[in-house]
Design a protein that fits this description.
mainly alpha, 3-stranded mixed beta sheet, 8 helices
Length: 308
């Protein structure tokens, strides 16, 4: 399963690189031909997307490597670093759009052959819509933050391309050239907000913030399903790229045979991994009289004995 996920992530990241390369070339050629600054700006924006797609592709390849002597927990953090880098690029792209828009307001230019610009913007919206949805699907399926950040890049490109498209239509119909940069600035605000949210999310994960409370509740529910477990505590969770890292202490009867205790841990690990794959689960065993909170070892334990 893990190998299939890694292959799927790499294939999807490669698709993003190819689509962004084609759009950069197409927008740049049409932008220069028509003399439309907004289209050239979109080419620059797509160039940022291309860099982000390349970073994501490299990240998912590196992150899929197995643990080694220098990275005992694997290489998943590379994806988090990639997502942070891509989020910064999104913010920079938004600032670039604002800069170009203000420059266009101060130095108005009347572009020609706008129908070519309309076609390339429509193609850009269609291609990025399809590729970004594919990226989001695979990102949710595999838990890849690098692909999620890449998808966010392309979603932002959809908005900017649509904004430029609308601006070109208005220019062609009314000759109100000043509306084009104003629409671009409004779009830049949306792009900036998305980039800022992604930046904060990346920072949280790089600083080992715990998994969402809903996911930790699911983990607790899974442990409570096993009647052999008297109690458990010290649940710790975090993410490393696509991987969830989970560890906990569970309390079992002190006279339980080691092979039985091992089987209980295996069952818990299998259930958690089935729910949260890919993930790594570490369980520390404790006999019931080891925990000061008990003072006795129950022979049988119901739901009322389970606590944290």
């Amino acid at each position: 399963m893990e190998t299939n996920y890694n292959q799927l992530k790499q294939q999807t990241a490669r698709l993003s690189v190819i689509s962004n390369t084609l759009l950069v070339v197409l927008k740049l050629v049409v932008g220069i031909f028509t003399g439309a600054v907004s289209i050239v700006s979109e080419a620059a924006h797509s160039a940022v997307d291309l860099i982000a797609a390349l970073v994501a592709y490299i990240a998912v390849r590196k992150a899929s490597k197995p643990p080694d002597s220098q990275h005992a927990y694997g290489h998943g953090k590379i994806e988090n670093l990639s997502a942070a880098f891509e989020a910064v690029l999104i913010v920079l792209a938004a600032l670039w759009i604002v800069y170009e828009s203000i420059n266009k307001i101060n130095n108005p230019h009347i572009p020609e052959y706008l129908e070519y610009g309309l076609i390339v913007m429509a193609v850009s919206v269609a291609v990025n819509y399809w590729v970004s949805n594919k990226l989001y699907y695979v990102a949710r399926l595999t838990g890849s933050h690098a692909l999620e950040a890449d998808a966010l890049h392309l979603k932002a490109d959809i908005w900017t391309s649509a904004g430029v498209f609308i601006g070109l239509v208005i220019i062609k119909l009314t000759g109100l050239y000043w509306l084009d940069p104003m629409i671009a600035i409004a779009v830049a605000v949306i792009v900036f907000k998305a980039g800022f949210s992604m930046t904060m999310k990346s920072i949280y994960e790089l600083t080992d913030v715990t998994l969402p409370e809903s996911e930790e509740e699911e983990i607790r529910a899974i442990v409570h399903q096993h009647p052999e477990v008297i109690a458990f505590h010290k649940l710790r969770t975090r993410r490393s790229g696509s991987f969830r890292l989970i560890d906990m202490h569970i309390v079992l009867k002190k006279d339980m045979y080691l092979d039985k205790a091992h089987d209980v841990c295996d069952e818990i690990e299998i259930t958690i991994k089935a729910q949260f794959a890919p993930c790594d689960v570490i369980i520390h065993l404790e006999p019931c009289d080891y925990n000061d909170g008990f003072g006795f070892c129950p022979s049988e334990c119901g739901e009322n004995c389970k606590h944290e």
